[in-house]
Amino acid sequence: MAMIKTPVKGMPEQLPADMEIREYALGLIKDTYGRFGFNLIETPVIEHIENLTNKQGGENESLIFKILKRGEKLKESESNDELCDSGLRYDLTVPLSRFFVNNMNILPYPFKAMQLGSSFRADKPQKGRFRQFTQCDIDIIGDGSNLAEIELISATAEMLHRLGMGNFKIRVNDRRILKAMSAACGFPAEKFDEICIVLDKLDKIGVDGIAELLRKMELGEDGIGRYCAMLADGTDYKMCKGFTAKHIGESLDAAIADNMDTIISCVRAIVEGRGEIVFDPSLVRGMGYYTGPIFEIELVDKKNYSFSIAGGGRYDEMIGKFSDGKIQAPACGFSIGFERIVTILKDKGLKVERKGESVAYLLRPGLEADRIREVIVEVNKLRDEGNRVLISPKAKNIKAQIEKLEEYGYTRIVKVEE
């Protein structure tokens, strides 16, 4: 049976030119986040299946790549539910929470973590979206104040600016405001998660489409009308209080709106001239573990198309789930869509500048040993000086060989004939 030369569907492989761009972007990301005091860590790509299926990951839990038990344990499994004991992580937040509880005695507190690694989702592949993809996360564990949100958003905005991503819009909301909106319309509390799923479709189906879906949930017509009026009022409020005062009133704790506006005003002072930050009452975020402020960054190019490139929020209850509630620690995080960033950089035609010179030495086949030794000494001296130097036999089709080398950035070709 012939072996298959193409990769598994949705699993990307990177050419040398792609890796140059990826490594450039990763280096800049690490440098930027490092300047904000985030510490680089690494967690395993394989996680306990119990941690991945705890009803915190939203729709991602249906996209888990599950891993079968091994050896005798697999033979002893009596049902399909017992066949798997682990899976490939679908994000970096759940592994980070476990990591923190497991290592908290030797970590600083609050702890500012940075992770860059692969995650896996059995999703439908498309441009810029793969089943294996790199995530770049920053999280702050142990800070319950809005300073955590301000730092996370500011660091990510600075990183996008340094990558040359262009104009961006930061959208912020709070899960508690979403609940207050639902309650103000008389919707049952037990319907909240289902309502959020509907609301998340606003940009695709519009306010009328939202109303139709809410009717299918058999919610009251008066409540649907009030809810849709909130959405029709707009999603780009400069501050939060204007919206909450108009549509929610005193049923919302004033401290929640105050907290939101503090985050907005502080970030706005930092990103002014590079992008904008707005309060968006329709912002949902799909993860079930968010408990407070949530945020997304949307890129907008000169052609006026837009898409989300980063998202995150506060998840204060996650840490406690790894200790039966004995350990409580506030937590907040932000994740960027690294694959989309790489796609944009490639579309922009980014050429990574190399330090030093790129030289290729092409040696005539059959060259004498003494001459080869001289060339190797010369080549290594150039390498010691910080240059990139390739040494290779000269091909029969020298023209094609040189064209390919030039395509890969070699600016000087040295032919060694004797």
Task: Write up this protein.
The protein is α/β, with parallel strands linked by helices. It folds into 2 domains: 16-347, Bira Bifunctional Protein, Domain 2 (BirA Bifunctional Protein, domain 2); 358-416, no CATH class. The protein is 39% helix and 21% strand. It contains 14 helices and 14 strands. The protein has helices at 16-35, 49-52, 71-75, 93-103, 147-162, 175-184, 192-199, 202-216, 221-232, 241-247, 254-271, 338-347, 369-384, 398-407; strands at 39-40, 46-48, 66-68, 84-88, 111-120, 132-141, 168-174, 275-279, 293-300, 306-314, 331-337, 358-363, 388-393, 412-416. An 8-stranded mixed beta sheet has the order 1-5-6-11-10-9-7-8, sandwiched between helices. Strand 12, helix 13 and strand 13 form a beta-alpha-beta unit. Helix 8 packs antiparallel against helix 9 (221-232). The radius of gyration is 26 Å and the shape is elongated. The two termini are 48 Å apart. The mean pLDDT is 89.
List keywords for this structure.
418 residues; alpha/beta; BirA Bifunctional Protein, domain 2; 2 domains; eight-stranded mixed sheet; three-stranded antiparallel sheet; elongated
In short:
The protein has 418 residues and is α/β, with parallel strands linked by helices.
Q: Indicate the mean pLDDT.
A: 89
The major beta sheet can be summarized as: 8 strands, mixed
CATH class of the largest domain: Alpha Beta
Q: Tell me the fraction of residues in β-strands, as a range.
A: 15-25%
Oligomeric grouping of the chains: single chain
Q: Please provide the count of β strands.
A: 14
Order of helices and strands: HEEHEHEHEEHEHHHHHHEEEEHEHEHE
What name does CATH use for the topology of the largest domain? BirA Bifunctional Protein, domain 2
* Span between termini: 48 Å
The CATH homologous superfamily of the largest domain is termed Bira Bifunctional Protein, Domain 2
